[in-house]
From TrEMBL:
Coiled coil: none annotated. Gene3D superfamilies: Hexapeptide repeat proteins (2.160.10.10). Keywords: Transferase. It comes from the Bacteria. Pfam families: Hexapep (PF00132). Belongs to the gamma-class carbonic anhydrase family. This is Bacterial transferase hexapeptide repeat. The keyword Ribonucleoprotein does not apply. It comes from Nitrosomonas europaea (strain ATCC 19718 / CIP 103999 / KCTC 2705 / NBRC 14298). GO terms for molecular function: transferase activity.
Length: 186
């Protein structure tokens, strides 16, 4: 469902993107080309700051927002999802937040008030809260990264983890074409 927020902002979805009929996109959202938004995902841009201003939630080209993902933002802050990025099942991305290009965010992970650099991998059930993760870092499953985390203890992304991330992005790009093909049958 694509709908306006109380302020009247309506999502802008590129014609080549696929949004599952059960997903909800509400408000000031920009979805670029060849994006996959899976079943029961919720992307909601409806809060404003103290002056009534709101930044958009933007999903970059060739990215995928998988089943049950929630993307929202506090007080009208921006959320940006980079190109070729995968946000896996039931993850929460809460702005203010910037997720760079070629990133993988694992199942049930939570991002809040952070920046995730290009090529990072955040595995399943991890939390990144209140800090900036430089490009190419690997956050293991269930790990919590915050402002007091010594980033020198965080490993770099291995070639195997990078290949996995690329494969997930490729697979979901293929799904866009398949679902667009059968869209009128749904």
């Amino acid at each position: 469902m694509i709908r306006k927020n109380p302020r009247g902002d309506q999502p802008i979805v590129h014609e080549s993107a696929f949004v599952d009929p059960t997903a909800i996109l509400c408000g000031r959202i920009v979805v670029h080309e060849n994006v996959f938004i899976g079943p029961y995902a919720v992307i909601r841009a409806d809060e404003v700051d103290e002056t009534g201003h709101m930044e958009p939630i933007t999903v970059g080209a060739h990215s995928n927002i998988q089943d049950g993902v929630v993307i929202h933002s506090k007080s009208g802050a921006a959320v940006t999802i980079g190109e070729r990025t995968s946000i896996a099942h039931r993850a929460i991305v809460h702005g203010p937040c910037t997720v760079g290009p070629d990133v993988f965010i694992g199942f049930n992970s939570v991002l809040f008030n952070c920046t995730i650099g290009e090529g990072c991998v955040v595995r399943h059930n991890a939390v990144v809260d209140g800090c900036d993760l430089p490009p190419g870092f690997y956050v293991p499953s269930t790990q919590r990264i915050g402002p007091r985390t010594d980033l020198s203890t965080i490993p770099k992304v291995s070639p195997k983890a990078s290949e996995f991330s690329e494969d997930v992005a490729r697979t979901n790009n293929t799904l866009v074409q398949g679902y667009k093909h059968i869209q009128n049958e749904l």
